[in-house]
Amino acid sequence: MTDTPATLLRLSGVTKDYGSRVITHVLRGIDLEVTAGEFLALTGPSGSGKTTLLNIIGLLDRPTAGRLEFRGADVAQLDETETTAARGRGIGFVFQFHHLLPAFSARENVMLPLLADRGRRDREMQERADELLDEVGLADRASFRATDLSGGQQQRVALARSLVMRPPLVLADEPTGNLDSESGNQVFQMLRDFNERHRTAFIIVTHDDRLAARCDRVVHLVDGQVESDTRQGAT
Predict the structure, then answer these.
(1) In what order do the strands lie in the sheet containing 169-173?
(2) CB under 8 Å to 83, separation ≥6 — which residues?
(3) Burial degree of 78 (CB within 10 A; 0-12, 13-18, 19+)
(4) pTM value?
(5) Per-residue pLDDT tens listing for the chain (235 residues)
(6) Which residues contact 85 (CB under 8 A, 6 or more apart)?
């Protein structure tokens, strides 16, 4: 008998509107539950609300209405300091563009979230960064500046950075969209490997149907609503 995975994230009736005189309804009542260790693709046409939803899940924006629970806490009850802490320690981010600091080494870029959280540099921080760089195949590039790495290598550094706080959830917004097919496939496989080894949950926004088909679950948005939520076998 296996234990039922714990609920990591729950959205109930989440809406998001923009504007005051002319109101744009971007999200229209999203209900979504994500459990620990899930590997989920978020798909939909441009303008369907994918990035807005990811920003709300990532505690970067607040919904207009509805309820968002993360790790059992009602996010609406958290103040800004508590929200920042929940985001920094509980959620990793990978974007289409890696957003590395060009003058910093790969190791230093990976360490940044730990440095921001602790306010000081220590040996354990460096060891954890080196461990993750080894896991993404860049142990021999730890001291290289970001500008001396290829696009695929830079995205792998960004992946290591997203995992350095050991978050239970990583949000990836088109993480392979700026890469060639070979590099994109390598980065995607690394996301999958981390999911399987560490049971980190991933929500991946993608326009690539082939990548979505390799996820365990596909949530498809249309006009700010969940049109379909399909569980499938991973390949």
Answers:
(1) 91-95, 169-173, 201-205, 39-43, 217-222, 225-231
(2) 59, 75
(3) middle
(4) 0.89
(5) 456 678 999 999 999 998 888 888 999 999 999 999 999 999 999 889 998 999 999 999 999 999 999 998 899 998 999 998 899 889 998 877 778 899 899 999 999 988 888 878 888 889 999 999 998 889 999 999 999 998 888 888 998 999 999 999 999 988 877 777 887 888 888 889 889 888 999 999 988 888 899 899 999 999 999 999 998 764 4
(6) none
Q: Are the CB atoms for 10 and 33 separated by under 8 Å? A: yes
d(CA 228, CA 186): 28
Q: How many domains does the chain have?
A: 1
> In angstroms, rounded to a whole number, what is the distance separating the alpha carbons of residues 217 and 203?
10
Find the domain containing 25 and state its range: 7-97+167-231
In the numeric block, the tokens 């974007």 are attached to 95
CATH of the domain at 64: 3.40.50.300
Give the whole-angstrom CA distance, residue 88 versus residue 161: 12
Amino acid, single-letter form, for residue 155: Q
Q: Which two tokens stand for residue 230?
A: 């399909």
The answer as to whether 110 is a domain residue is no
Q: Are 11 and 66 in contact (CB under 8 A)?
A: yes
Find out whether 91 and 59 touch, Cβ atoms under 8 Å: yes
